[in-house]
C-alpha cells in the first residue's frame, strides 16, 4: 500500500477504480503476509524505496519503507478492511492519519499481486506489482546491504512471464512501470 494523504470512507470511492479485477473474491487468508512493491505506474512511488506491507490476521497492517536516497527507514501502522477484492488501508500512526482504497486486480497468492489504488501520494491513481516476501526463497550473501533489491529483482525475473500475462489485461507492460526496489 502506498502512502495516502486523504481520509474518507474509501470503499465507497468506486469511481477511482478503472479496471475490473481478475480476482472477484479475494481469499484474504491466502493473501495475508508480507508483500514488497516492485514497480508501479506512478513515478511518485519511487520516493518510497522498497515499500513492504505486512497484512496480519487481526487486520493490522505494518508498513516499512526507505526514502528514495536509501537513508531513512520509516515504519507505520494501520488497519485494513477487505470486501471482495477491494480493501481500504487506514493509517493512524505517530499523529498522522491517512486512508486510501485498493483493489487486487490479479494474484497467484504465492508470488505476486497486481494492485490498483487511489492514494493521494500517487497523484490519485496507481497500479503496482507487489511480490510475496519470503526469505526461504532467497539466500543473500553475507553482508549484502542491498539484499531487498536483489530479492525483488530475483523474484521479478522468476515470475515475469506470469506478471506480464496479467498486466496485459490492463494494457500494461512491466518495463513501462517505474521501479521502486530493483
UniProtKB/TrEMBL annotation:
User: Which GO terms of type biological process are on file?
Assistant: symbiont-mediated perturbation of host defenses
The record's annotation in InterPro entries points to: Calycin, Triabi/Procalin
**Coiled-coil regions in this chain?**
none
Which superkingdom is the protein from? Eukaryota
User: Subcellular location, in the record's words?
Assistant: Secreted
Primary residence: secreted
Keywords tagged on the record: Secreted, Signal
What does the entry list under GO cellular component?
extracellular region
A Pfam family matched in the record: Triabin
Per the record, the similarity remark reads: Belongs to the calycin superfamily. Triabin family.
The protein's name: Bla g 4 allergen
Which source organism does the UniProt entry give? Blattella germanica
Amino acid at each position: 500500500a502506498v502512502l495516502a494523504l486523504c481520509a474518507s470512507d474509501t470503499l465507497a470511492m468506486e469511481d477511482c477504480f478503472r479496471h475490473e479485477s481478475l480476482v472477484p473474491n479475494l481469499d484474504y487468508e491466502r493473501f495475508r503476509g508480507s508483500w514488497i512493491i516492485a514497480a508501479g505506474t506512478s513515478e511518485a512511488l519511487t520516493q518510497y524505496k522498497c515499500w513492504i506491507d505486512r497484512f496480519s490476521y487481526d487486520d493490522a497492517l505494518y508498513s516499512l519503507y526507505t526514502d528514495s536516497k536509501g537513508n531513512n527507514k520509516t515504519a507505520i501502522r494501520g488497519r485494513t478492511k477487505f470486501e471482495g477484492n477491494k480493501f481500504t488501508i487506514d493509517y493512524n500512526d505517530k499523529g498522522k492519519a491517512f486512508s486510501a482504497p485498493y483493489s487486487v486486480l490479479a494474484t497467484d497468492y504465492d508470488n505476486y499481486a497486481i494492485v490498483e489504488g487511489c492514494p493521494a501520494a500517487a497523484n490519485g491513481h496507481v497500479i503496482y506489482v507487489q511480490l510475496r516476501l519470503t526469505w526461504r526463497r532467497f539466500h543473500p550473501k553475507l553482508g549484502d546491504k542491498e539484499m531487498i533489491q536483489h530479492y525483488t529483482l530475483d523474484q521479478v525475473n522468476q515470475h515475469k512471464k506470469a506478471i506480464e500475462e496479467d498486466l496485459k489485461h490492463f494494457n500494461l507492460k512491466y518495463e513501462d512501470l517505474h521501479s521502486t526496489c530493483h
